[in-house]
Amino acid sequence: MARLPVYLRALVGLAEAAESTVSSDGLAVASGVNSAKVRKDLSHLGSYGTRGVGYDVQFLIYQISRELGLNEDRAVAIVGLGNLGHALANYGGFAQRGFRVAALVDTDRRRVGEQVGGVGISHLDDLTDLVRANDISIGVIATPAGAAQDVCDRLVAAGVTSILNFAPVVLTVPDGVDLRKVDLSIELQILSFHEQRKAGVSSLRSATAAGAPG
Amino acid sequence: MARLPVYLRALVGLAEAAESTVSSDGLAVASGVNSAKVRKDLSHLGSYGTRGVGYDVQFLIYQISRELGLNEDRAVAIVGLGNLGHALANYGGFAQRGFRVAALVDTDRRRVGEQVGGVGISHLDDLTDLVRANDISIGVIATPAGAAQDVCDRLVAAGVTSILNFAPVVLTVPDGVDLRKVDLSIELQILSFHEQRKAGVSSLRSATAAGAPG
DNA sequence: CCGAGTTTGTGCGCTCGTTCACAAGGCGTA
DNA sequence: TACGCCTTGTGAACGAGCGCACAAACTCGG
């Protein structure tokens, strides 16, 4: 379930505030969702709550972390060290959640050897060795669109089974490989769409209907 | 509809390949979705296809762009010029899709005046003036989590009606303001979750059942 | 022990999006 | 003009997810 990480973040915040238990409603408010949804989601993990009391914050953090596999050591490779790749390599949130940036890879040989966030940049040709040596299961693609599918294929061939794609292109992966995408400009376009709706759709519609070529 | 930007991207690719028309199935493959979904989505914009032929690529690009409001001049403010903010400010994809990065804002006065991607950094206190002077309707929050809600409130107060949040925190906005969020570590956690499922859930489940405290 | 108050876990109906399947309609050829 | 052939547009069935509402169960005070 895609909301578990949100709950986890909220729970960590509650733990820092020295809260020992939390009700489904409290967690719902902190996570920005409905309380029934929280209860239903958590019940799918097992019955970890106590009626009349709520959920034990620490225990829930442990259970959700386990469910998400955050107790395991998850090594990540970042491919493409442009602006976005640099930002990702320096992003503290990954290490904080238990992810280890084990490899940085680029095609530009002039960048090889450069240190970013304490990790040296390697060449794309060494990807397979790096993946196997560091037991990397997750690959992050931060390359230009044109290179993304090739990089993706190489990651899969090297044994990576989960890919996070930032390149603005639709990638294809074989069965058994999970693929998620984040397209920054698409997010902006969706906001633009809503702006458009807010700014008088009716007038625009009628004008278009009158002036449409056919 | 959240898929329109994906269609648009695919259509631009087809246009560059000098394709004049495209069938719903062709566009579906290029966008990674189902062809029936494509037809239903496009029919909501109006009947712009020709039976037996398909859709006119250029005309569809125009119609989707119009629907998304990409013909209008959309000015964007980026708040928080850390690693991520820098990457966003330098990201060419925004300008390419018709967004204009009109203001960069940070709280660190030592950064004020610095140029990033051709735009100077201003101080957060000048946000309202910048928003009004540049007619900014979209704000991007790339600050640490602790500062995000304050920045969000300031953006709203200044007149921004759409916000894209990269900070790992749940923001609250008044009605009429659109909010979207991108949490990079959540994406990784979702991948980790699927890795967990792939790596023998059954064995882990039984071990947990046997060793569970109660 | 008992009753009042609180909170979990879940059955049920509802809504929304997806997908199937097919009729409606345009194009090319003879 | 008449006839296949192709593709759109859409009605209808299906399924997933959401939220209400309530019974079950626990705590606390007397």
Characterization of this structure:
The structure is a homodimer of 214-residue chains. Chain A is an alpha/beta fold and 214 residues long. In chain A, helix 1 runs antiparallel to helix 4 (57-68), helix 2 (24-31) crosses helix 3 (35-45) and helix 7 packs across helix 8 (145-158). In chain A, the strands form two sheets. The first copy, chain A, has a seven-stranded mixed beta sheet with strand order 6-7-5-4-8-9-10. A three-stranded antiparallel beta sheet of chain A has the order 1-3-2. Mean pLDDT of chain A is 91; it is low at 202-214. The longest helix of chain A has 15 residues, at 184-198. Chain A has helices at 4-16, 24-31, 35-45, 57-68, 83-90, 92-96, 127-134, 145-158, 184-198, 201-211; strands at 21-22, 49-50, 54-56, 74-79, 99-106, 115-116, 119-123, 136-141, 162-165, 178-181. In chain A, a hairpin with a 2-residue loop joins strand 6 (115-116) and strand 7. Chain A has ten helices and ten strands. Chains A and B meet through helix 1, helix 4, helix 5, helix 6 and strand 8 of A and helix 1, helix 4, helix 5, helix 6 and strand 8 of B. The structure holds a DNA duplex (30 and 30 nucleotides).
Q: Tally the helices of chain A: what do you get? A: 10
Alpha-beta classification of chain A: alpha/beta
Low-confidence stretches of chain A: 202-214
Radius of gyration of chain A: 22 Å
Topology of chain A as a string of helices (H) and strands (E): HEHHEEHEHHEEEHEHEEHH
Placed side by side, the strands forming the largest sheet of chain A appear as 6-7-5-4-8-9-10
How far apart, in Å, are the first and last alpha carbons of chain A? 46 Å
Largest interface summary:
A-B, 62 and 63 residues
Q: What is the arithmetic mean of pLDDT of chain A? A: 91
Apparent shape of chain A: globular
Fraction of residues of chain A in helices? Answer: 40-55%
How much strand of chain A? 15-25%
What would you call the quaternary organization? homodimer
- The strand count of chain A comes to 10
Described by strand count, sense and barrel closure, the largest sheet of chain A is:
7 strands, mixed
